[in-house]
C-alpha cells in the first residue's frame, strides 16, 4: 500500500534523527494510513480509500459525496 493519503495528498516526511552526540542519521516520519471502506450512494457501491487520520476527519466533516466528487475531478482511481 502506498504511503499517501488519497484525500489530503499527505506523504511521509524525511529528515535526520539527531543523537545526544549530535550525529545525524536519516529517518522517515510515516503517516497513520488506514484502509477505509465507504458506501457511496451516488455510485451505488462501496469504495476503498487509503486515508490518513486527517483525511478520515475531512470525510466526516464534509461528507463522502463531496469528497468523492473532488477526487473524481482530480482523476483519482478508487
Automatic annotation (TrEMBL):
UniProt keywords, alphabetically: Ribonucleoprotein, Ribosomal protein
Gene Ontology CC annotation, any one: ribosome
Superkingdom: Bacteria
Keyword Ribosomal protein found: yes
GO function term, MF aspect, one: structural constituent of ribosome
Protein's GO biological process: translation
Family of the protein in this entry: Belongs to the bacterial ribosomal protein bL28 family.
Protein's name according to its UniProt entry: Large ribosomal subunit protein bL28
Species this chain originates from: Pseudoglutamicibacter albus DNF00011
Lineage: Bacteria, Bacillati, Actinomycetota, Actinomycetes, Micrococcales
UniProt gene name: rpmB
